[in-house]
Amino acid sequence: MYAVDRYWDVLATNALAAYVFGIEPGHNCLVTFFTDEGTARRYPFRDVAGPMMVAQFRAHAARYADDARFREIVEDLLDRSAEFRTLWDRHVVGVTPHVDLVYDHPSLGRLSFAPTVLTPADGADLRLFVYIPKAGTPTEQALRRIV
C-alpha cells in the first residue's frame, strides 16, 4: 500500500509496495507511468490503465484549476509522452472505476491485484492505494516468498 497527494506524488509506502512496484516517497505515479520505459513494460493492460489514470488526473486537475503544479505536470507530460498527449487530448474527465491491476514484476512474474482506494472523510487530498492479491492467482504465493 502507498499514499499519494493530489498531484499523485507518493507520500508514504510500505516495504512490500516499494519492492513490488518500485515506488518511494517523492515519486510521481503518473509521470513514471508515462515516461519510464521499464515501468511501461510492467503493465500488460496499459491500454486500460492509461486512459483510466488520465481521466482521474484530469478530474483532480479540474478541481484545482488555478493550481500551477497541475499545469506543470501536464505540460511536462505533454512534452515527454505521446501516449499521455493522445489521452489528454481526448478530454475525458472523471473518476472511472478501478479495474483489477495486472502487473509484470521482473522477478515475481505476473501479479494480479484487486485495488481499493481509500480517501479521508474530511476531504483531504490524500488517497491510500491498497492492493489485495487476487484469489486463485499465483500472486499470493509469489508475495509470500518475499515476506
From TrEMBL:
Domain MmyB-like transcription regulator ligand binding span(s) in chain numbering: 2-145
Domain of life of the native organism: Bacteria
InterPro entries attached to this UniProt entry: MLTR_LBD
Protein name: MmyB-like transcription regulator ligand binding domain-containing protein
Taxonomic source organism: Cellulomonas oligotrophica
